[in-house]
Amino acid sequence: MSTFVFKSLRNTVLGILAILMTATLSNASSLKDMVDSVLSSHEDVVNAKKELEEAGRDVTDAFLAYAPDLSVKWEGGSNYKHNAATDSNMHGWDTYDWTWKQKIMDSGATIVAIKNKNLELDKKELEFISARNDLLIEAADAYLGLIKASEKLQASIESEANTRETSGQEEIRVQVGSGLTSDVLKSKRQLASAQKTVITDEKAFNSALYTYETVFKTEGPDVSTLTKPRLPKDTLAMLPNSLEETVEIALVNNRDLLLSEMDVEIARNDVVTALAGFGPTVDGEMKYSDKNDASHTGGQHYEEQIKLTIEFPISGLYMDMPGLLNDRSALDRAINDHAVKERDTIKDAKEAWQEYANARTLLSYSENEASIARELLSISQKEREAGQSDAAAVLAAEETLESSMKDLSDDSMTLVTSVYELLNVINMLEPSMIEDTTPIGTFNTSTQ
User: Fold this and answer.
1) CA distance 49 to 132
2) CA-to-CA distance for 146 and 295, rounded, in angstroms?
3) Residue 93: helix, strand or coil by DSSP?
4) Which H or E element spans position 317?
5) Which domains are assigned to the chain?
6) Residue 400 — very low, low, confident or very high, per pLDDT cuts 50/70/90?
7) Across-strand partners of 70?
8) What global pTM score does this model have?
């Protein structure tokens, strides 16, 4: 009778928990849907996209340095000349000037400026991907973190209910003279510990909930609709097969390393621009003027002018020298920074691969451990009912099951995030790769 009461109490508690979670959490969806909604509206991604568009316009602006400078000008008024050999009074004179100015050569400064603007555009594209992927991983962590926190809380409540049931059974055994008071105290001590664990996991659950609401700009997500993502086959196929392969791909594709290479190229171009300041410039100009009673000349006439200007900046030999030296120093610093970034990339690639490899191995062990722990608890409870073991064995089995279920939840989530992190390090992560939403997937570990 007592066993029936405690089991009923446990089921009631779990039912209340499910109802509370459903009442507290609403309006959630799959990971892919939630990530897509964030990526389409988050301020960081929107700003990165605007910066990319601005960089594209800067490239166009740089090319326009070679576009002809066209202008038209009108002037009009009256001219009066007195006390001269020939006096002159011109009323209502006017002139029209059409001018075409053309940059012909500036010792390569404009060509280098165009190259740098294209490099800046390429950098903005990579920075946009970085902003997008950083947000993608943050959103995935928040989504999976809420699932993990709810699973851990559920495991704690189940463990607390099992411990409460065991404690009650031990009290009954003492009352009928078949149990030990020490077993009752042990079970009560573990019950108190289990209750503390529930409180701790409730706090962690609320923290995960607040993070989810902040990242996804929502309130009251329904935890019952949150599901662990199944990784598509195409995503898994893109993963490297070894640590060496991961490092090799990262040294070619890693975004931070690519950005560093572009910084070196921009610094090298800046040196070329500084050297161009010591070279000549060539500009052309064509001008057509239509004049009517202008310049104290009666009647209407027109003038045409074509000129070529070649300028040698002699003062640049001493005025621009400090800037050239600073640009060369900046190039040296960029090369040194790139060497550091290369070493950091190798380290990041190794760590990402190791995290993925460990997560894959640990998950298989955790699944096995959880299955054994569940069976062990069942056997321990039966043996205790038959008087073949003591309360300590049951309590230990309950603790083992709780710990193994939490480890399984941790490891299953870690494997998913490690895949995202690894693909991000080698610059292959795309939003479409985070989840397989078809009915049959390739990865979906259950902790139930």
Assistant:
1) 10
2) 84
3) strand
4) helix 316-319
5) 2-80+88-433 (1.20.1600.10)
6) confident
7) 100
8) 0.78
